[in-house]
Amino acid sequence: MRWLAFDGLGQRELDAWHRLRTSNPALDSPYFHPGFAAAVHASGRAVHVAVDEDDAGEIRALLPGHREGSTLRPVGWPGADFQGPIVQPGESFSPLALLSAGVRSFEFDHLVDGVAAFEPWIRSRRVSPYLDVSGGLDGYLGRASKSGRDNISQARRRTAKAERELGPVKFQMDVVDEELLRQLVELKRDQYRATGARDFFAEADRLNLLHRLLRTRGRDFGGIMSTLHAGENLIAAHFGIRADSVLHWWFPVYAPEHSKLAPGWMLLRELIVAAPALGIDRIDLGRGDDEYKRRAKTGESTVCQGIVTRSSSRLALRKLGDTVVARAKSSALAPGLRRVVRGLRNLRR
């Protein structure tokens, strides 16, 4: 296995990346598209790619990531909701081969399930819900649960209420507007502050990433920002990424002063309606058991958490960290315990 900086990849490596990804249906998420790694690298956070070749010199796998000290993490960490090697279905891949050139561990938290070679290193699994929106709204409603159908119906009625109280409702599926993106990010940061969550956008390269993705307009990959206004009010917005027929639901926000309208559901309904026009068949909601995800989903995949290492002490530290995280999430003291969790994460770097 050899290592290359992303901008050191040649046409041979990029062609292999596209070929391997296309051959494997489990890799249809936008996070596996080379365009995502390219945008992350260009935003100011270096991406290195492990390139694995067979005995004949043919590229059989690639894995992009970030080398932080002796730890390797998947490209886009901690914002990548799907992770794993770019490899054909059933092709062998040795996770331990990643532990070379100074890399002592490979840490993952959204590894796609089904890569058998990682099984010894997986510590937990969590569901990642999605919406099958093929056929648009009618197709979705035919597959949704009763709860999902009820919430979509309520969203239609609340849209009418918003028009009466705030003014005409305007939905934009795919808008390129730096000012609207700034508003979206500010709403998201307000949400982080209100909930005590870590501010994803505290690091400049992550803001750069969204602005770069907003301007990425390829036919098979790019960023996509959707907005919902009522009168002059931005009541909900979403920034995601898409590859071919898959849209990833990444940064949804709503204006808290209009929360009684459930504008997030209003926006989601509009996205489902508009999906066929953009060729979208699936909306991935990302890992988590949020109530709206449970209600809206038509299905779910599984992502895995773990660490590949030869070090028993690192494994023990990871186990301790997982235990504290689990307790923090279930405790009434969760906001305060988050500081402890972050400290443990820093120790694992």
From TrEMBL:
Alphabetically ordered keywords of this record: Transferase
Record organism: Kutzneria kofuensis
SUPFAM superfamilies hit by this protein: Acyl-CoA N-acyltransferases (Nat)
Entry GO MF terms: transferase activity
Residue ranges annotated for the BioF2-like acetyltransferase domain, each copy included: 154-294
Database matches in Pfam families: Acetyltransf_6
Name of the protein described by the UniProt record: CelD/BcsL family acetyltransferase involved in cellulose biosynthesis
